[in-house]
Amino acid sequence: MFHSYKNSVTLYWNSNNLEYQIIRDNEVWFESGPFFIHFNQTFYSSAPEQEMLPMLPLYLIEQYETNGTDVVFGLFDRLSLRWSITNTSNGFVWETSFKIFREQSIILFEQYFPIDLSGMSQGNDRNTFKYSSTAFPRFKVSFNQTDQYVIDQLGHFTFLDAWDLDMRGVGLKNVFTGGLYSGNPFVLYNLTKIDSNIILSSLTNFMTNFQTRSPSLNYHLSCGLHGRVHQIVKSFSLKTILLTSEPKQGINQIVKLWGKLMLQYYGKQHIKELKDLHRDFYVS
C-alpha cells in the first residue's frame, strides 16, 4: 500500500491480478478496470477476458519503485509498470506510473510512450471523443444494474463551459456526456460527509487527455487519450491528477485548492494579481 499526506488517500496495488484500488475513509472509492491501449488499429488489455470487445493481451514485463521530489507538489513515491504486447522483456510500448505524494493529498497517474505509435484513432466524428485510446486510470462503474461500487453512490459535479446544474447528480450510471466527456475537472463527494471529496482532472495535455465513460470499455470511467487522436510521438506523456480533501475542507475549498495547484504547476498568477486579464489563464 502507498499512503498520501496524512493518509487522506491510499493506493493498493495487487501485482497478482494487476488491479488497484483507491481507498479513502476506509472505503474503496475506486476499483480499477484493466489497463488498456489501442494502436495499429488493435485493442490491447491487461485482462482481455473482462472486456466487452475482443482484445489481445497486454503483458506487464517490468515493475519498479522510485522516489523523488516534484518542484510543485513535493516528495513522492512512485510505482511504475512497463507494458508490452509480447510476453518478452524485449522492449515496452507503454509505461504507467502511480506517483503518491507525502506532503500533498495527491496521486498522479502518468502515462509515458517510449516509441512512436500510430493507428490510434477510432473515428473522426465528434462522437469519437467518447472513446478512449488509452485508459489509465480506469475505474469500474455499474451499468444498468444495482449499485455495486462506492462510486455509484457518490455525488458528482462536472464542468461544461461553466458549472452546469444539468451535470450534477448521484452516481455515474446515467452520465455519458458533458464535463465527464472532456479534459475538465470532475468532482466526486460523499453525500453524508461533504468534507470527503475528490477532484479528478487532466494535469497535462488537456486537448488530448480526457476522462470519459468509454462505450468500448464497459462504460468504465477512463482517463487518457481520447479516440480521435491518430498518432503520438516518442517520449509523449500524459498526467492525470487525483486530489483529495482533508478534514473540514468542503467542495468549494477543494476546488479552490485545485485551481491554486494548477496555477502553481504552470507558473501562473491568480486573476487578482494580474493587470492584463486577457493575456493569462486563470482559475477563480
Automatic annotation (TrEMBL):
It comes from the Eukaryota. This is Uncharacterized protein. It comes from Rotaria magnacalcarata.
